[in-house]
Amino acid sequence: MSYDLPRLTHALFCTLLGAAIVLPATAQVNNGFVSISSDSVNVRTQPTTRSDTAWELSKGYPLQVEQRRGKWLKVRDHEESLGWVFAPLTAKTPHRVVTVHTANLRAGPGRRHRVIGKLDQHEVVRTVGSQGEWARVKRDGGQRGWVAKRLTWGW
């Protein structure tokens, strides 16, 4: 059996070059959202517990995953700030954070439904459903209602 060495070398080179291009790119791919699963979690400047705490977040706060490094996640918050959180302190439970001064909590998905409460800026609510541009949410105290997605950030 005879091999065409130049052709085989070229094929191997192309395969390795392709892997070198694709693999680093996948490490940077947006991996979706997570939420904080503990009562309080430090967001760090680097992926180590020895690094400075950039800020602290409470349970349920949604974060967009930008990168993974071992057991650490590089995350972005609704204000576009970046930091690192320890992955075991997060969950895939959907939450939203209110991004406006006050958002109406409504009885149904639409402006024609009555207002049953007010959500304050930075309030975190659990997402329990969705219909079009509206999210069905649950507050810490158990109250459920609908909020316009454009007034919140998360999933």
Description:
- There is one protein chain.
- The chain has 155 residues and is mainly beta.
- The chain has two domains: 33-93, SH3 Domains (SH3 type barrels), CATH 2.30.30.40; 96-154, Roll (SH3 type barrels).
- Helices cover 15% and strands 46% of the residues.
- The chain contains one helix and 14 strands, in the order H-E-E-E-E-E-E-E-E-E-E-E-E-E-E.
- The strands form four sheets. The chain has a five-stranded antiparallel sheet, with no helix packed on it. Strands 13-12-11-8-14 form a five-stranded antiparallel sheet, with no helix packed on it.
- The termini are far apart.
- Residues 16-30 have low confidence and may be disordered.
The end-to-end distance, rounded to whole angstroms, is 58 Å
- Quaternary organisation: single chain
Identify the CATH architecture of the largest domain: Roll
Looking at CATH, the homologous superfamily of the largest domain is SH3 Domains
Order of helical and strand elements = HEEEEEEEEEEEEEE
Q: Which residues sit in consecutive blocks of at least 5 with pLDDT less than 50? A: 16-30
What is the share of helical residues? 10-25%
